[in-house]
């Protein structure tokens, strides 16, 4: 246990997510951050983690086959007396919902881009999400040891794509074969590049820029070119402004090469020095159908947290699930009595863990910003608020109306119970959205990305022994339905009995076959609210 006071404990936390397009180098950088913080000893360990997860969890086969990261994970490390919580996000676009939910649990993001490819499609979508929430973003331009694009070009593109000014903190000297290192604009020093993956943070040579003759001799034209482009970049880009960064209005930019451990420490330091500690969260509890809005500060004494991810069947032999909770306030200690707001019931986890890089360990204490995993046999869902007694419901964990639908046909009707259990659990986990048509008939699965169907089909068989066939259907969208008066709702449900369904959280949804369809229904029933997204309530 540490000697920090309660307030210090929350202030020294940094919780961030790494976002990138697949292959930009996210896994590599994650590993190096862990390595440099001392959380792991040997390179290759993060890959090892991936591999061992494949072995224990069958459905991860899909990830292996496709070379994409399906699940997101959590890692905690200590660095410079700070507790850093790093959340990985799935890179594949079909899992953007999962990524969105992870981004609701962090206070900042680290964007990794491939210097040859610039800002790619998948990064763009993630940026949108960060921008909506004004999440501060640190940019890392990776793979400078390759033949890549002009750094000025990249800066320009990042500015355009992010819609916010860049502020370079380091600047590359050369690239590819001529990559000489990075200039740190603040310390006015050059850190010399040496290839290899076994260097520690202090193993790189640092030369003051004042010794420019020496640097020029060593790096020739690349050095002069770098100084010139650096000057241009500084002229064209924003000066460092911490408040703007915190408001999501400016991004600091770093250059380096993750695979060579190079430029990584600068990023780790930036997470500590620039990124914000945990911030306040808003609770909107419905009391007598009126929202009661309350802002919860990380330093508030009562424990509270929100479930932003649920992973079922981590251990195939036990029907258990881990609810990943982002602590919003207070302090968690083992044995604490916890309540799930939605049900009012006590949460009795079989274990409570923290995620120390590779290992899961029993939690001794956790503060705002930390991610803790509650292992339970049910009773928790995505979006649930958990407290030590207070009545709170955090908002901001949305479900998007699916755009792809399939009906589920069970091959062996004797497995109906298993199918229902599987769908209920996968629905609660957010792996897929499950709609039960009010008129009966096969269940409908709704997804944002096609790959979600494949994962669910695979998992139903592997984890629930329910072999299913998925068939296309006429639906192309859904809207969650609410009305101000029961009579209005009744009139609507009487008019569209064939189109109504209930989802995993038992919320009423209208299934539509085209965008016009919604418009027509809306025109016919102006008093009905059609919601394209549902926030947990
Ligand atoms: P992810 O899909 O974003 O997690 O990317 P990975 O970390 O798995 O990296 C994708 C590929 O790029 C791997 O083959 C890495 O070895 C390689 N890579 C990562 N960083 C660098 C770098 O700085 N330079 C070079 N040349 N290759 C890199």
TrEMBL record:
An example of a GO molecular function for this protein is:
GTP binding
The UniProt entry, under InterPro entries, shows: EF-G-like_DII, EFG_III/V, G_TR_CS, P-loop_NTPase, PrfC, RF3_C, RF3_dom_3_sf, RF3_GTP-bd
> Is rRNA-binding set as a keyword in this record?
no
| Function of the molecule | Increases the formation of ribosomal termination complexes and stimulates activities of RF-1 and RF-2. It binds guanine nucleotides and has strong preference for UGA stop codons. It may interact directly with the ribosome. The stimulation of RF-1 and RF-2 is significantly reduced by GTP and GDP, but not by GMP.
- What does the similarity note say? Belongs to the TRAFAC class translation factor GTPase superfamily. Classic translation factor GTPase family. PrfC subfamily.
> What is the name of the gene encoding this protein?
prfC
Query: Which residues make up the binding site for GTP?
Result: 20-27, 88-92, 142-145
Provide the GO biological process annotations.
regulation of translational termination
Family annotation (Gene3D superfamilies): P-loop containing nucleotide triphosphate hydrolases, Peptide chain release factor 3, domain III, Translation factors
Name one cellular component (GO) term: cytosol
Q: Which UniProt keywords apply?
A: Cytoplasm, GTP-binding, Nucleotide-binding, Protein biosynthesis
Which coarse location class applies to the principal site listed for this UniProt protein? cytoplasm
The UniProt entry, under SUPFAM superfamilies, shows: EF-G C-terminal domain-like, P-loop containing nucleoside triphosphate hydrolases, Translation proteins
Q: Where is the Tr-type G domain?
A: 11-279
Q: What is this protein called?
A: Peptide chain release factor 3
Question: HAMAP family annotated for this entry?
Answer: Rel_fac_3
From what superkingdom does this record's organism come? Bacteria
> A single Pfam family, by name?
EF-G_D2
Localisation per UniProt entry: Cytoplasm
Keyword NAD among record annotations: no
